[in-house]
Every structure is written in structure tokens, then in C-alpha cells.
Here is the input.
Amino acid sequence: MNVLEINNVTKRFGNLVAVREVSLNVAKGEMCAIIGPNGAGKTTFFNLISGFFPPTSGSITFDGRDITKLSTHERVTLGMARTFQITEIFPELTVFENVRIAAEVAGGFRLRPWINRSEAAAVHARVEATLKLVSLEAKADRLVGELAHGDQRAAEIAMALALKPHLLLLDEPTAGMGDQETFQITQLIRRLHRDSNYTIVLIEHDMRVVFHLADRICVLDQGRMLAQGTPQEIAANEAVQAAYLGNAA
Amino acid sequence: MSAEQTRKLIVLAAIWITLLLAPYWMVPLGGYTALATRVLVLGLAAMSLNFLLGFTGVLSFGHAAYFGLGAYGAGLTLKYLAPSTPLALIAGMLLGGLCGAVLGTLIVRRRGVYFAMVTIAFGQVFYYIAFQWSSLTGGDDGLRGFSRQPLDFGLFKIDILSSADNFYFFVLLCFALAVGAMGFILRSPFGRTMIAIRENERRSRFLGIPVERHIWIAFTLSCFFMGFAGALYALVNNFADPRGLHYSQSGDFVMMAVMGGMRSFWGPLLGAAVFVVLQDYLSSITVNWMSFVGLLFVLVVLFFPRGLLGFIQRSKA
Here is the structure.
């Protein structure tokens, strides 16, 4: 069953066509990587999926439901969570508080002027389990703004995970990282996929990461879907080599 | 209990003891009880504004409108409807809060400077209504001809009109209820979403928080508290002034909040205390008292950007 179905989606900004008739299906439990040169429309494509703005044409289905016209927070409520190329966190709150807000919203408490003991305990347990998953449990009481870049990334992923998403969208999770941090985040994403069976779509520049992680790779170029396939197929694809890998080499 | 929690409890106890004993220590220091009452009421208004400014991160420059509406609501109730102090307070709070709820639906779609501008514009609308509708509001002269009524408990009555101390304790009780409610909300899951919106609106949205709806709720709650403070202010003066709705009054509230420390819960009360006491003292010496208050404000913003209380907290830590 497909978690996400994108049918012929186009996004225009004035005369610029940022995304042109792109279709993509993501199956449950799949890890799909989107690659492409700068300006290929990857982030625009992500923004369309997560509801940052509506597509000019085309439709998006999530868990069998048409979400083309839904707002961001409605999509999140249905089970879609994302992280950003530039980390979006609550820098002046602790790691625990960051993740607790996500857990409380996911628990349906966001409008509640009180929370009882057992509910608070359930939220607490959820936050601790999530922090453990991303190996941040020792830093729970630190301010997120004071953490190293890699840990901030992990905290952002933890917030997304606390929402109990059916689909995780990661926008360049290793952007701006050194080798050590890249390795850690890659291992984390791999664990989320292999062990916890999350369905993940990620944008990534680092080819080592992409070929290491992805079940399937989609190549965007100038707003179009140039090719899709397994890492082996993409590596062997001549059009991709010409448009993208060839340039990089 | 951790050392941090113990310290917080001690600070909290100190604040309430200071407030409870104010009529006894202010007079020997050269103050008077009515001054302490004004500090409480304007402090409550500044804290209500800061509920929005400091904890949701949106700046309203027209909050005096809801303060003034509360004052007129209380005054008109006492003058025309019923000689009951509690009823006047409720009426004032409802008038401020409900007007805030209605206008809030339009205001929350804007952010930053535009949010501030729209709040000023709506605030001025109420100012001109109060100013022009003389037959109801007394126009430029303000609303007169009412006074706070004794608290009637059936078996006995408490005189809050002629006894300044009784009135102070009554206002302190009202203040405690309102501030308690604010603190309770801020410690709730909803309160944490307010702080989330302040910290990072985009992240909040992508956590599934409908940001506009939450800002609207915070705005509306803030207007209810503001209306309540305004109603108390009408009782303090036995008078409602159209200038209480003017945007310059809104500016005073913003000054109190920023001067005291808008990231701290109690900061605006300290800001209001400094503002009111300086005003009381300086205005007996010079008509240009505002330039001195303004100078202090500039110094605080330049040297203690987290406000007076923020500075005190930081230097202790």
C-alpha cells in the first residue's frame, strides 16, 4: 500500500516552473531519496508535499486521502512530519521541552489548559523513549540552542518522531555536517528505517549517504523527474550521469 | 525538591508577602496605600499585555483599548445597571474580552509590524467612540457619577470606598485570581504551545499547531485579563477616562512590560511599579516627568535588554 501518492504535480512561481508534472509513489516502509543539482526543485517539491504552499496543478494523496488542499498543520495531524534544511527548533527551550511540545500536540492536548498526572506521565514516557531513539537522553536538560549542530539535528528529528508520523520527510539531514556527524545521523536514519520501519522521504546531497540508505532514488532536474529506480539502476542510468553525476565527477 | 524549585518557591513567597504587607511598609517609606493599589492594577494590565507579548511573541500596540473598555464597562454598569462591584468587574472583563475576541479574528492574520499597526488602528476606533459618544460616555470629560460599592456578603458588608486598606486588599485578591489564572494557563499544554509559537512559528506549524487559532486564543485571553484590569482601574478612580483607551496608554503598558522584563512572568509588575512610583514622585516636581521616565526606559533597553527583572535574575545565576 502506498503511503504517499503524488500525481502530476506542477508548481509555478510567475513564469518560473519550479516543479513540472512530477509523480511519485512511496510505499509503506520505503526509504526514498530525492537527489538533483541545485535549483532542481527538490525543496519546492518537499514544500508541496508538506503543504507549505498548494500546487498549481496535480494532486497529492496521503494514506488514501486527498490532501492537496489541506493546510500544513492538518497534514501533520494526519501523520506527516518534516525537518528542514536549516534546523527549525525552539532554541531557548531544553531538549526535553522541545520534544514535549511535539508529544503533547500528538497526544491531542494542545488546547488543554490542564493536564492530569497520568496524561503527563504518558507524555513524559513518550518524550524519554523518543530521546533514547535519537541518543539524546543524556542531554535532555540542555538548551537546544547550546547543542552542537549534529545534536540539534537529532533534536529536530526527535520532535518529528514524537508526532508518531506515518511519513517522515527529511530535508538534507546532513547539511553542514562534518564526517563524524554525518555518520551519526546516517546511522540514526538507518535505524529508524530498518528497526522502527518508518516510511521516509529524504532530500540529500551527499551521495555516500544516499546510496547507503535509500531503497529507491528519484532524480529531479530542472523541475522534472529525470529518473527513478534502485541505487544500482540510477548509478547505471546515462541520462542521470549526464545531467547530474557526470557534472559532479 | 530541587534547589531550583526551592529557590522559586522562596521568591514567590517573598513577592506575595511584599504585596500583602504593602499598606504597612509603603506609608513609612513616604508612599500611600492608593499608590500601591495603582501599581497592582497597572501591573496587572502590563502582565496581561505581556501574556501576549512575552509568551506568545506578538506585540499589540492597542491593548489600552481593552483596558479602557473594561473601565467603561465597569463604570456604565455601576452608573446605569446595578450598584454592584463584582457585577461591574465581570461586565468590564466581558466587554474588553469579547471585543478582543471579535477583533482578534481579523488581527491574528497579520504579523510583526502589521500586527502592531492593526492593533493600534482598532484601538483608536474605540478611543474615538468613547470620545465622541458624549451622551453615554461623557466624551472628553470622561465617565463620572459612579463609585465602587461596598462588598455585600449578606451577613456583613465590607466598605471598600472610604477604607483605602480594605480596597487595597480587595484589589490584591482580584490581582491574585487573575495572575493565578495566567500562571496556570502558561504552565499548561496550551501555554507551552504559546511559547512554542514565540520561539519558532514555522516549527510550531510543522508540529501540527494551527498557529493563527492559538494566537487568537492567547489574544482573547489577554483581552479578558486586560478588561478585568481596566474595570479595577475604573473602581480605583471612580472615573473612566477616554485617554485610557488611547494608543499612548498602550505605549505605557508596553514600556512597563519591556522595562520590567518581558520574558519573565513578574517583570511587568516591577516595570509598572517603577513607572507608577516615578510618575507619582516626578509629576509633583515637574510637568516633564515623562522625559525622565523615557530616559530610564532608554537606559534599561540599552543596558538591560532583558529588563530590570531579567537583569536581576541573570546576575544571580
